[in-house]
Specification:
The protein is built from three helices and three strands, in the order βαβαβα. It has 68 residues and is an alpha+beta fold. It has helices spanning 10-22, 34-38, 55-61; strands spanning 2-7, 28-30, 46-50. The protein has a three-stranded antiparallel beta sheet with strand order 1-3-2, covered by helices on one side.
């Protein structure tokens, strides 16, 4: 799997998940449960991962989403 997006913003993460679901692209959110370890301070960004064969399609879907 390859990382296509990284963010601390949970609202943006939800929007990204929505866009990928609408496009039919399977994804995995890594580090999603780090908040339990970090004390919910948002220090560790969540990483959105997709299979290597859909990286280009996912990048197109997320092209207009501001990074960060």
């Amino acid at each position: 799997m390859e990382e296509i997006f990284r963010t601390n913003d949970l609202v943006k993460l939800s929007f990204i998940e929505h866009l990928l679901q609408e496009a039919g692209i399977a994804y995995f959110v890594a580090d999603q449960h780090m908040s339990a370890v970090e004390g919910n301070i948002g220090a560790f960004p969540r990483r959105v991962m997709v299979r290597g064969d859909v990286v280009k399609a996912a990048a197109l879907v997320l092209a207009e989403v501001e990074r960060g």
